[in-house]
Each structure stands twice: as structure tokens, then as C-alpha cells.
Amino acid sequence: MVCPCGLLTRQEEPVPLKSISVTLSICEFVAGVSATLNYENEEKVPLEAFFVFPMDEDSAVYSFEAMVDGSIIKAELQDKTEAHANYENAISQGHQAFLLEEDDCSRDVFFCNVGNLRPGSKVALTLKYVQELPLEADGALRYVLPAILNPRYQLSDSLLGDPVAMVSFYPNIPEAQPSAACGEFVFLMDCSGSMQSPMSNQNKSQPRIEAAKETLILILKSLPIGCYFNIYGFGSSYEAFFPKSAKYDQRTMEEALRRVKLMRADLGGTEMLAPLQAIYGGPSIPGHPLQLFVFTDGEVSDTFRVIKEVESNGQKHRCFSFGIGEGASTSLIKGIARVSQGASEFITGRERMQSKALRALKHSLQPVVEDVSLSWDLPQGLSAKMLSPEQTVIFKGQRLIVYAQLTGMMPPAESTGGVCLKYALQGKSFENKVAFSLQPKHDANLTIHRLAAKSFLQTKDMGFRETPASDKKDVLKVSIECGVISSYTAFIAINKDLNKPVQGPLVRRDIPRPFIFCAASMPRLRGGGAPLEASSCPDVLQPRMSTHYLGPDKPHALGHKKKKEGVFLQKTCLMMDRPHPPTNRTNLEIHQPVFEDNHLVQLISLQKADGSWDLNEGLALVLGMKLEDIQAALPLKNADSSSWATVLAVLWLHANGKPMKCEWELLERKAVAWIHLHAGSARQVLVQAAITFLKSPVDPAVFAL
């Protein structure tokens, strides 16, 4: 359900957010954002407004200030309990006060209390944050402006007093043969009411639940023979396809496909903890490590409990998580992947869920990279203290970022250091080395320090209620020292310059999170642009970007195919997911299957679990030919018709489905392997005859003849 745009009262009456301006700067793969939210109290009574806004889970909020009728009030970061007491005390004395804090249950939602806003008063809240930019499969960097935006501090003596290194690796992991242990694959699919929403705001955009069903069909066809699998649909309740994970064969695949085609977005809200506990509570299958795939378009009320549940089972599985649409919680999606050494993806705008899910499946089928270690080569008297969690898993084509605090005596400016990433794959050892200058770069905003602090906090901070007592002290210390908000701190700003208290009782205004920016309209970053700013009314944001570059190398295009490894040193210088009521499921069996107009999905749905196709009317329909003509073209009368059908299907995929190859590549590999195993000496004759029959331009080399 889409909430009306802008700031609203409980009765959906407008409240005083007048405009927003955003300044964005990008250096290498780090973004710096400054956002100003302009308010005006147009009512005749003083207001205490409550504004809720989302932000990427990786964002390090470091500055928060307010301009009230021309006077600037800078906030300081305090212990949350102390900040709340100071806020309430300021309000009771009639002072203007502003309180910014993380949600107790999730670190990607922030609350801003705007207290004692006098009638006619104008306030501009400025929030600043930095974040890493995610890397796309094709090497492009991507920035998505959240639905609404984000918080600063004085220089301290510890983490901010030492140089900090940000190390970026792009390991060139070679292709490897899949391991013999296939694995247990469990797919947890969101079936809440919001999954009926379209994938994007584009015309004729596919409903999320239909994209999810196509994705599951592709996955089911791509699984390896001999593995185990299960599918759970969840919302306010959950349903499993099988009582326990079933062995993958033709019978179980067909049963799963039947259930997938009947899936609907009718399970109410988004409650993930119970199905996760059911999955983890089942018996492990010897020789088949658990691989969990989670798909959701919303957020849960107990984000930190969910992350903690995944983390407590992290040693026996990997979790691949997918956020669907602009409303998915980055804290949830990134958190459950991070603590299980998996990977996370977000699907927004016109992006296809299918391609990102299949890419993750490929990663899950790759042999595990083992013995990952990082070693530093630094001058005597200088050492590196790691601020990032220990990395134990690396995937091909992905970036690895780590942060380290350099302590001790800094050498002369001309000195250099080095860092080496080592790992093993299928018994072979590999390493990547990076050399760097030990002269830090000056940055008044301390961008790398903020990101390093955020990385540390992500490891230790599990929420106000879930963080172990042993970690709370470190979380509070680093958060206060570095000015980066956490579950235990809040920004507070108090205007004590007013000569008289605000008169009259405060009227409370709760402001639901508005949906004011669609990620579909935000371009992916591939190069520089003119420096600009953006300002808008609340219902539309049209950001203009300024792109800058750091480092000794010459400027290069963001997202260039040549991926860089490097070290960066720095001086001390809406969519509201409202639960939909469950619908009556008695008519489930008459729900019509979809995908009728998609020949690619039709062809894939006809494939058997072992990778082959049968020669039948369904295949003839996809090929656009009569079944009798296909049968008559069989070059060898004693040849197996399934071999002939499978060769034709593979050729059709290469000729007609090339733009989506990443989605059918795994099932095509399975088909080619089946042809090699069953067609025998007739393989080459069948391939040449099929190319001639279909008048296909496809190179026969795709069959590895």
C-alpha cells in the first residue's frame, strides 16, 4: 500500500515539511550526502513533530544541525539515555529541541523529534552521512537516494586521532568446478500483501509476486541433481512446501513447480523470525551444507532479533538475501547476509529479480574459498588494528573492503606500506598484494574514519536490546568519539537563546514515512557530471550529482570494467508495508497459472530435473513449429527423441534468450551435460542437423563438441 506523499498527521492532513535540498559528492566508491529538510509551523499552536525516515544500513550519520529563524544550533552526540533526559528537560522549560536517533529495532530507520516548534517558526534541519557504494555485476557503482534523508561531532583523541586505511580488493578468483557436495537449498519467499505491488512505477511493471514465481521456476530448473531443497512462503504465518527438505528429482521438482504457480501475496504482514527458527531447527543433511535464500520487500519489527538468529546459526549455513523494491530494509537484508558470510542484493526500478537470484545461486554452487587471511607490511613501529570483521568467504566478481587503524610512529612521508590478501581454492593458494604511500590524504569531513567506525559498529552493535553487555561499552565509546550514531547514542540540539518559553500546550504530530523518491529514476554512476545541487518540494526529489575522484591515479570512470584495488589513507583532520489481511484460500486451486505469453519461461518450465526436454506439443509451441515437422527432421531414426528435443531447446535459448543468459546459464549447463551423457556418438550429428533445421546462427561450440 502506498502512503500519500509528504508530511502528514494521523488524519493525513499536511504538516510543515516545505522542501528538501540534497548535495551529493562521490569520491572513488564513497558517497558523501548533505540533506536539508525545511519545515514551517503554519498552525496557530506550538508543535512537536515526529519524523520517520529510512536510510541505507551502511550509512555513517555524523552531523546534525538546525537553523531556527536564522540561528544555527549544532547537535552533539550523547548517550541515548542522557540525550532523552536532556530533550525532555529542554521541552519542559520551553526551549526548542531536536532529537535524532536510530530506531530501537533497526539501524536503517531514524527518528527525528522536532520539539517546541513555535507558530510561524521556520526550521531547516541539515543531516550529513557517508556510505560505501555497492558494486554491480557489470562493474558499475550505484547510488540510490533513500526516501528521505540523514547526522556531527568534534575531533577526539583515539580513532579520529590516528590515520585509518580503507583497503579495497577485487580478487581475481578463477573459475572452479562445482564441489561434489551439492548442498541443501532453502528458499524463504515473502508472500505478504505488499508483494502484490508492482516491481516499479513503470507502466505494465510486473507484480512482485509474479517476478518471485518466475525466479523460483528458474531456480528450480537450475538446481543440481542430487541436492536437497525446500521452499517456504511467509507473511504473518508461514507455509513449507515439504515437511523437510526433499531430494531434488523429477517428482519433487514437479510438485514444487505446481505449488509455485499457486503462490499468492496473501499471508498478511512480514514476520520472518518463526520460519527462520523452523529452518534452523530441522536436522542437518550430512554432506549437504545449508544455503538459505531470503526474498522480502519489507521490513520486520524485530530486525536485530532476526539478525541475531541468523548469526547464531552462521557456522552451519550461508544466507543470500534479496531486498525487493524501494521499501526493503537495508539493515535486515545486509545484516543477515553479513553475519552468515553470504551476500545481499537489492532489486529496484526495472532490475530483474531473476538475474540477481541466479547470480547468487551460481555463487552458492562455487567451491568455498578457504584460509582467507590479511597481512600487513609496515615500517617498524607502525601496526594495523583491524576495525572490520574477519572475512572468511569471498565470491568471484565481488569486492572486499576492510578498514584498519594505523597506530604507532608514522614514518617519513616518502615511506610505503603493503597489504596482502591470501586465500586457497581447491587446494591451490592465491594472493593479491597492494602497495601504498603512508602519507595520509587530508579530508576535513574524516570520511574514511566515519566509514571505519560504521564498519566497527555494524560488527558490535546488535541493537539497544540485543547487544551483549561486553560490547555495549565499545559501541558507546566509538560512537561518541567518532560522532557516528548508534543504537546507544542520539543527536540532540537545544536552542536556549529564546528569552521566553513557548506558550500553550504542545500538539503532537506523528509523520508517517512518505514515498518521495523512486530509485528507478536515479541513474547508475558511470562517469563524472557537472557539479550541481538539488532542491524540491516534498513529493518529488530530482537530485543533481557532483562526482570527484581521489588517489594518485588519474581520474577514471566510475564502473569502468578495469576494477581497481587500492588503499585510502586519511589524516586526523515509501512505501509503507502495512499488513494486508489474509485472504480466503479456499479458491486457491482455481488460480490460473501465469507466464502464458513468455516463451522463455515456457521453455524453461518444460525442462526436466535432469536437464533434458521431451519432444512434445509444448516444445513445438515455443519453437513455433508443428510437432510432426520436428519429428520428421530427426536425423537418426534410432536416436532418442529427448536428445533431439534437448539440442533444439539449447539452440533456441542461445538464439532467442541471449539478453537473459545470466538467468538460464545454469540450466543450460545441465542440459549440455545431459546431452554429453545420453546422446553419445550421435551428439555431433544431432547438433549439426538441428542448426540446419532451425536455420540457427548459433556456434556448435556451445555444446563443447
From TrEMBL:
PROSITE patterns: VIT, VWFA. Gene3D superfamilies: von Willebrand factor, type A domain. Signal peptide: none annotated. InterPro entries: VIT, VWF_A, vWFA_dom_sf. Residues 1-131 form the VIT domain. Residues 184-365 form the VWFA domain. It holds the Pfam family VWA_3. This is von Willebrand factor A domain-containing protein 5A. It comes from Camelus bactrianus.
